[in-house]
Design a protein that fits this description.
alpha/beta; TIM Barrel; six-stranded parallel beta sheet
Length: 281
């Protein structure tokens, strides 16, 4: 699996406080079957004073520590880029970071209130030839009132990243409901852990994948944690892999815990071979 949203870098934001926690988070990732993790600390002026340059340095330092400890996890650089004015310019300058120097960038909206003209900002990112990936929309407090905005951004070309713990129920019924609804309606592109530590918000992508399989089937679950994350790292065009839509979705099915969707299996499409060629392993 490939986890494209983690706060595993030590002492750089509200994630891992030190190297020991970072190493244990990495071990947990490997035990679950994660082979690549994106280091995506917050970039939020006035709160988390990170930038592309210091994040890249921190990623290289942690990768050396993982290699010395014999932990077989490959790291890539990225950021949880909060919505700020001049977002596209920040990506162009390198102050904000895309994932693995591709066209794909995590975009974190404010949690409590939908910002004015968010859809216009997302469209401006698309016009600048980037693909915005909106992080954990199912956990936004305004999702009920502005779900139309979430769907509109997805229709315009933004990708959506749901948190594994939302789908498995770690964050409670409300995020679980919205994660399932979005996934059933075919607007979720990737699943990621958004891991911050080893206890309260641990790496849990495997658990999230199992929950996704019950909802949308094995093939789409693989796309959420293998196929599309791999395509992002390879910088493939966004239009090549659209999420599926679950037939006959309704709220009652989500409430009582039953699931719909076709359950088929598929191979990994040469995932490990491609990753070895990409990363030299």
């Amino acid at each position: 699996m490939i986890d494209l949203h983690t706060h595993i870098l030590p002492g750089i934001d509200d994630g891992a406080p030190d190297l020991a926690v970072s190493l244990e988070m990495a071990r947990m990732q490997v035990r679950q079957g994660v082979v690549i993790a994106a280091c995506t600390p917050h970039i939020l002026p006035g709160v988390y004073h990170n930038s592309g340059s210091n994040i890249r340095t921190a990623v290289a330092r942690l990768q050396r520590a993982l290699d010395e400890a014999g932990i077989a996890l490959r790291l890539i650089a990225g950021a949880d880029n909060h919505v700020v004015p001049g977002f596209s310019e920040g990506l162009n300058s390198g102050h904000l970071l895309t994932l693995a120097d591709t066209r794909y960038a995590l975009v974190e909206p404010p949690h409590n209130v939908a910002p004015a003209r968010l859809d216009d900002l997302v469209f401006s990112i698309l016009l600048a030839n980037y693909v915005p990936i909106v992080t954990h929309p199912e956990r936004l407090r305004w999702v009920e009132d502005r779900y139309d905005l979430i769907k509109h951004m997805a229709a315009r070309g933004a990708w959506m990243q749901v948190t594994a713990g939302s789908l498995s129920g770690r964050f409670g019924r409300r995020p679980k409901y919205w994660a399932e609804r979005m996934m059933s309606e075919g607007i979720v592109h990737i699943l990621a852990s958004d891991a911050h530590d080893t206890v309260e918000r641990p790496p849990d992508l495997a658990e999230g994948r199992q929950a996704a399989e019950r909802l949308v089937g094995s093939a789409e679950a693989d796309q959420l944690v293998f196929g599309r994350p791999r395509d992002i790292i390879l910088d493939k065009p966004a239009a090549e892999s659209a999420p599926i839509v679950v037939e006959r979705f309704d709220d009652a099915e989500l409430e009582d815990g039953s699931r719909g969707g076709a359950h088929g299996r598929t191979g990994d499409g040469g995932l490990h071979g491609r990753l070895r060629r990409l990363f030299g392993r």
